[in-house]
Fold these 2 entries.
Entry 1:
Amino acid sequence: MSLYFANALPDLVDDALAGFALAHADTVRWDERDGYLRALHPAPTRRVGLVSGGGSGHEPLHLGYVGTGMLDAACPGRVFASPHNRQVLAAARSVAREDGVLLLVKNYTGDRINFGIAAERLAHEGIACGRVLIDDDVASQSAESATGRRGTGAAVLVEKILGAAADDGRGLAELEDLGAALVARSRSLAVASASHTSPVTGEPAFTLPPGTLEYGVGIHGERAARTLSTRSLRDLAEEMVASLAEALDLSGDSRLIVLVNGLGGVTRLELYAVLREVALLLDKRGATTVRTLVGDFVTALDMRGFSVTLLDADDEVLRLYDAPAAAPAWPARPGRTTR
Amino acid sequence: MSDTTTRPEQTGPLAFADFTHRWVHGFAATATATETELTALDQQVGDGDFGMNLVAGLQATLRLLSPPTGDAALPTGRAVTPAGPAAGTPPPGRAAPDASPAAPLAAAATAFLDEVGGTSGPLFGLLFQELADAVREGGAGSPTAALAAGVRGGLAAIQRVGDAEVGDKTLVDALDPAARALAAATTDDPAQALGEAAGAAWRGVHDTTRSTARRGRASYLGDRAAGVPDPGAVGIALLFTAAGGPVTSLAPLLH
């Protein structure tokens, strides 16, 4: 028995997309036949269309970031499953500009293959196509695995910053390079005190022994590599910030965009407390928190957990980040610590 | 591969078009005949949908090749016969809008890329897309050279998309040796050249039986997938083997 509120589980994604399109009819259009969501008012200055997508269950990613100043289109798959290559192809065809289209792909095998097949087909049709691979999760960094780090919270920041750069009229190669640089300067880490509820069984995807938490979870209900004993938020944040600072090789003068992201089942009360601890710990290291995002941006259904993403930014990246955007899930007033 | 085509000597685009039509129909008949065995293989190392996806892709291909024409002379329900036409049966060329050598390969490309789920199916679509392009561009010359260029292009596209190398226990393990065999083939007879590619592909399949997956679905199983050939690699070997006529059973080819 499912605990989810749905007419029928297989219809949940389609029903939600129809509702989303209704809620934001002034901003986006849902193409039900071809399976993509499209921005209605992209800047006329864009020379490259931006397309992302991935499995559903991570809302508001990616549909909430379709809009003016961010994505031109997003392709949703079923829950935790990649979209089909023909969805990506149809979306890319419809938003490609004079300098082609850029695909923003989170690093999962299914997404890589389906976006990759679409890229081959676009090239075959003579549409220039680039790719930014988002792989920011430090917990999945492993020498033995050929699959590499997972893509998580950095997707939101990359979509925002590249959107502003595309509005500036930058070309495909320039955007591809900027995207790769942004990913290289972003790292994330996630923890959970309870798994998401499986839509199919209504049971937790995994159960944790009392007094433990999972350190380094993904966004598809996969177990983490490490199980830790429950500890104070301060001690937990200290471990997370240490891992992220090491991965980013943070220096004393680093200026950071900090995303404290709920995974779907954690309170704002907790998330703001996380932000405070993270900012204090960064301050101790001499790094400065210059921009903040706190809330549910990339979820894993109703997982009781959060992730922290740090992006080491320079002036140009901050200028692009601060440019106005009108996408349904981008905050009207994103957090700034200084004027 | 035994020589099943003792037909009068024919050359030129018409003979090549006849060949590619029989090849694709033969592959469709092969997929239908071996679906159960492919499913059993895939259930051991994947999610069990490979045989079903292969059959679905080829049935969609045959539908694209024989569109309903509204011609009163054609009996209804003729479009897809599960067993497929016997090898050597001329394709229903009059009804098809395009009887060029590239047409059946282009139809397979569209069918596999647009209508098949999973990951292996659309990757077959990329191979067919490159084959169709190469045959369209080079079909008037040596058919073997055109097929070799198409398979080489398909292998490159599949590797760009999936990042798999030989030895990762994926369909690349069969496609890479097949591409090499075709490039080295000295015959102009496409059936004979693809027969040589088939031999090389089956040797690659047997290598996957012994290896551990690093890519694709089977990579989640590690050593538990050892002893089972990769279903995608088997599908590639069947594609080349079907150029010599439909395959009716997988078992003799896996030993």
Entry 2:
Amino acid sequence: MGIMLDSVFFDRFAMGFSLGVHILIVMFGVTMPVIILLADYLWIAKGDMVYKTLSNRLVTAFAILFAVGTASGTLVAIDLLVLWPKFMALVGQVAISTVNIEVIVFFAEAIFLTTYFLYRERFSSKYVRVVLMAIVAIAAASSGVMITYLNSFMNTPVGFNITAYLHNGTLTDIRPFAVFSAPAATIEVPHVLSTVYFAGSATIMAYFALMLMLSKDRKRKEYYGKALRLAFGVCMVAVVFAIITGVLSIESLMTLQPEKYAAIEINVNTTANAPEIIGGTIVNGTVQGAWLIIPTLQSLLAGGTASAVVPGLSQFPRSTWPPLFIHTLFDLMVMFGFGIGGVLALLLVMHLLKVRVFDMKIVQIILVLIGCAAIFILEAGWIVDEVGRQPWIIYNVMAVSQAANQSQTSGLLAILIIIAYAVILPITYFVIRAVFSKRPLDKELRQ
Amino acid sequence: MNLLVDINIVVFALVFSLFAVETGIALLNLLAYEKVWKRTTQYIAASWAISGTFLVFYIVNFEATYPLILTQAGTLYIVPVLLAGLFVIFRNAFIAYSEYAEDAVAKKTFVRVYAISTLIAVFLLISVLSSTVTGTGVNLSTMSLDYLEILFNPYNLLMFVCTAAVSILAVIMLLSIEKPLGFDKVTALSLLLVIIIATFLYATLTYAPFVAQGLGSRWLYLIPGVVMLLVAAGLYLNRKGRWNAICAFLWLVTTVSGFETLGHPKIFGGALSISSFLAPQSAASASLIITVCTAMLLAVGAGLLIYANRKSSKKVARY
């Protein structure tokens, strides 16, 4: 049986690919300002020039990534308009404040980053650069927060009369700022922010661990060691928040998006004493191929007691079930997340006990692997959220197929988007490499 | 007219002007790289991120102002707008690469790719604009585009030529680069002549359907062009003035606003009125509040950048 590739498939693919790449750039765009800010502060507070070198080198890489991020952000804005025009027509009337405010904070980020980048050495007080970078960091985070508010609106729509819209297709009783009270946002915003900080800092930490592993010279070891510890600190704080908010977000799904919850937990029936099922899928109405089944655990985690009732997919029409592969993806994501949290906590305890953990080769290898896993966790979390809402673009209001542009050219455009990124991303990598090869670390450290 | 529409026109004029300046910079870098790259790079380094963000601001502002037309607009213009978006990616990336390239050959290559990407993106966006004004190449009953026709019709080509000529003149005035360019009176007059002919033909041809429908006389549509030329000549003659750069940019913004306002509220050669696609009152009020906040932030941000730039110039001068 052949696969039918219609225009909606290509719209989905083009949007998914653009966002999948954009998320990776955003991960650096949100985290790097925090690390640069801390490096600047440590340089001023401790008078340690290693931190100034770290800040100067990171800000150069950040500026290049910011340029690519701005461009891919523009493409995402254009994608939304042309691939999902009916969706944007609704958002334009009900939830556009989120995107509007996102543009304001993005302006702030662009202006203050330009000022920092071009003129930071010109201000008489060193603290001006700290203030400038703090504004950049806040603006970058706020940008992500605003887009997450829009995503929360897609998961739990508010701000208009939904019954009237479903009845006659007209928008009435519009409250444009109600989007900020979308029920999903309470947990989704802190969870997205903490996971982005976690993934960004883990990847940067992995780079520093790798470079520390490859360093032979004492000065270089000192530089990468300090940089690694700084990124580790940010990662440690972020992972704690990511795990707490992650657990809470699963609980909130049970009431806000029960189909998504049931698909993630692969629950066939609504039941008490529900087991936690790891792996497996539903075949002919029963779960098959599970890796591990822990009796009653799901009910205990969800409601605090064994008698807690959790929703099952059978209570919803088959047509509104999300694709079930999100269950496996979710399981892998949670296993990696808790595993990484445990390893980082252990390293922290050892570090506090004065064990020189970061100098151990095995720890450096583990940290590199954690960086790779963090990228998987970030992308998997986003896929679980988006695919888990299918077939809806706005939950229980508008289906993806209703919102999509039906143009037959989507396929070609999707291919062009892939080609564009395939050209840009390697060049960006080589340009960053070339920049730093002209600015050897040893020379900067000596200066 | 309502306030949100007025703001949308001004935002459009600002975006158009910022990208027109970049069009001029792109053309000059392709034609006379060695003579202009130093001065133009200084401008681009400080402004590319803000210009790029302005483009997103306009998209979002358009979505907030005319949400009811988005389904049709998205369906019709998916190809040229998405293609323009891809070239904007190249524009951003390559201008950033050129800033960091130490090697002269690599820098020149990066600037060239930036320049070509900018020109293609601007040409595609002008084609979209031109077709919404004239309706050329647009079939509203089938909601389809004739791509060759929207790209290569006389209105569009004239608009691009006019934009290119105006943008070169604007960049020369904005960045005061007539000396390194060897820009003499003959070249200036030739450029003005191109602008005069292109503007006259563009205004006459483009707004012919509007005149035919009794929406103003033919001469009304020539007024912005004539005013633009007079101000251009005045600015060129007084180009040593302190506020010349600001005046040149304001002139560009005012001219674009003037042209944009002419056809309003009719689009597609007078076939549709855009007023019927406006946002509902509550959503419009929210957008207005946020847009005012954006304007205030931009004013503060621009002030900060100018302050930092002047402070740094003074320090450099002292050394």
